[in-house]
Hints:
Distance between the termini: 77 Å
Strand order of the largest sheet: 4-3-7-6-5
Largest sheet: 5 strands, antiparallel
Structural class: alpha+beta
Order of helices and strands: HHEEHHHHHHHHEEEEEHEEEEHE
Strand content: 15-25%
Number of strands: 12
CATH class of the domain at 10-172: Mainly Alpha
CATH topology of the domain at 10-172: Arp2/3 complex 21 kDa subunit ARPC3
Amino acid sequence: MSERGKALLFYPSMLLLIALLVAGYSGNHFSFSFGFGVDFLFGSIAVLIVVSLYGIWWGTIASLIAGVYTITLWQHPYALIIFTCETLFIAWRLRRGNQNLLLIDMIFWLLIGMPLVWFFYGNILQVGTITTLIILVKQPVNGIFNALVASLILTYKPLYRWANCSSGRATVFFEQILLNLLVAFVLFPALTLMVVNNRVAMKHEQNQLIAALETSSQNLAVDLLRWHQSGLAALRQLAQTSSQTSIVVSGQTQQSMELAIKSLPLFQRIYIINAKLEAIATASRQEETSSDRLNFSQLTIPREPKIFVIPDRNNNSKTTKPKILQTLPIILNNRWLGNIIAELNIDFIQQLLQTNNYSLPLRSTLLDEDRLVIATTHKELNEQQILNRYKNGEINYIKSKNSKNKVYHWLPLMEGKPLIARWKESFYGKISPLMKKYL
């Protein structure tokens, strides 16, 4: 590199420009989150300083460099377009002799910026009226705040000397100073109060939501376990009766099985199998079809009380359901004679999940140990699919002093949608393991 090139590179004007370009990108990268997907950006502070000191061309480059990050942040290019239009409008007005940066920026957002926000977010992205209105307020406030900060920084006269600007451009009129101070006295306290109140309100709402979610999920778990315990007691009685008769099925045994089916909606079918894994007695809630029958010789039947799930491998239809089996061994004099096996009624479990007498509406899903969906009230989920929330969303676990189990916030991945629209479709969830000692 020539001596002249080195001198140009380390010239104060070039160093200041490079610093401002980096600050513009960094100001957008290190944004401030108000919550609910609303981010406050600071990159245009540096961009407006570049426009004022270096003119339209460097100002446009600075705007593009700073605005590129918004594509990553909000998953669309429309914020970049709006911010670039802001830069071009301000540069044009400055060249026309209007040096009141704050006033120019106010005019831009009123006449151009807000209509562009409505057009891009309301019509192209179609994020919804309420979301569009929130952005319609947030973007101008953000832009005016940044213009105010840039205007205050530009009152520091050495900047003009470092940027090789004429001394005349460093002149600040009394009207500009007065407007800057008036807006600062209103905007700074208002934003500070809004940030503080918003954080307090968000924390309160989140704590309330977590508490309600914990209570509701606990009630649901208690309901499921209560029905399961009732069914398990009936199966234990059947197992005891069968062991006393050495699993020779009598009329009384068959009658007891049918009575259990009628009185306990949790059961769909009950089987008694012998040591050869042959079904020697069956009671069913409805007439069996060939697809309902189980071939126990092909299954690994545990010789201990256990619940296990059999996915339907033969039918890929969305209407098919896995089978949940509760098994109890039949023991006589420490000798295994067979098993009582109950197929649980998934339709009844689905009704329990849909019960709406909890403290807030729930969308509930019952999974097995391998995260296979057994029953769910989520419309987008089907039985027999593996639940993987990470596949189409982001999960952030929430720390809570009162939370013994995992509470998380799920945020969907929506290509081309801003964060605030994704937040609108998000939900809070809680993972509640059903205790094995009850099973």
